[in-house]
Amino acid sequence: xxxxxxxxxxLFWAGVIALAILAYVILDGFDIGVGVLFGTTRDQARRAEMxxxxxxxxxxxxxxxxxVGASLFAAFPAAYAVLLGAFxxxxxLMLVGLIFRGVAFEFRxxxxxxxxxxxxxxxxxxxxxxxxxxxxxxxxxxxxxxxDMQFAGGAFSWLHxxxxxxxxxxxxxxxxLGACWMVLKTEGALQAWSYARIPWLVGGVFVVxxxxxxxxxxxxxxxxxxxxxxxxxxxxFPILSVLALLGVLLGARARxxxxxxxxxxxxxxxxxxxxxxxxWPYMIPYAVTVSDAAAPEASLRFFFYAGIVVLPVIAAYxxxxxxxxxxxxDRRHVGVARGGR
Length: 341
Known about the structure:
Blueprint: H1 8-38, H2 44-54, H3 58-61, H4 63-75, H5 77-86, H6 88-107, H7 115-142, E1 146-147, E2 150-151, H8 161-185, H9 188-217, H10 225-229, H11 236-253, H12 258-279, E3 282-284, E4 288-289, H13 290-293, H14 297-324, H15 331-337
Antiparallel strand pairs: 1-2, 3-4
Helix pairs in contact: 1-2, 1-4, 1-7, 1-8, 2-15, 4-5, 4-14, 6-7, 7-8, 8-9, 8-12, 9-11, 11-12
């Protein structure tokens, strides 16, 4: 069967979704990672400083997740329908985690009696979000069963050993991003605490990647079907991912504050490009292509005119926010995390 080439507008919106996913993973990934690490300490001063380091950024970072969902719904409704059916449970778990994160962030300093509950909600919600996203990626790597452009599996078809492993891997990956972020944005005791955790997190990510590779070659060959579709030069991106992890470790050992965060970002970008090569040209691996899932050209054109207005505004807001709050976190930001108290 000959695949139909996607239109220019379909490629444009596929690119928008890909860039929005990448922006979300890196930007919201570090503040989710801070939330994961938040649960590994009981020191209240340290926790306050951890929250202060992400207070100006965390809610704006989630804007990119909205961009992904809205663009997918508008430009690729068939893919949206299949993905929602296939990953209803992981999406529900992710939303529960995001709700707990947001509510706990605002309430922990307004409710002294329930602070332990909200602290647990922030850490647990962050971990749940990371795991749900990683498990969904692992399930997509195994392929999504479809029939006549409809999801053909069950509510728990995604729940398999390999997706559980990728879910744990993303929890560790986000935690690594969070540690690198705190190295970049904080000083003193918290920065030293974050430096100390980077080697352990890098080691954990390496272990999970190794286990996933072994599982895909032995117990779960379905997980390797995307890799078998890649061309020879596509192996450059997985190699770059490994080198970037080593760069994180070396940067942390040399106490170069900006290097671990930069190398962690390179790791996620190269991992994302690896997935892109594995999945392309499918929007739903390995059944529904970008062309099959695209909305009619008239709809894509209408959304394009809206997108060229809205997307630059979101990008400008994101860049401006990071520019305004550049540099080390100070007590004013800790005050924001405390609800202005």
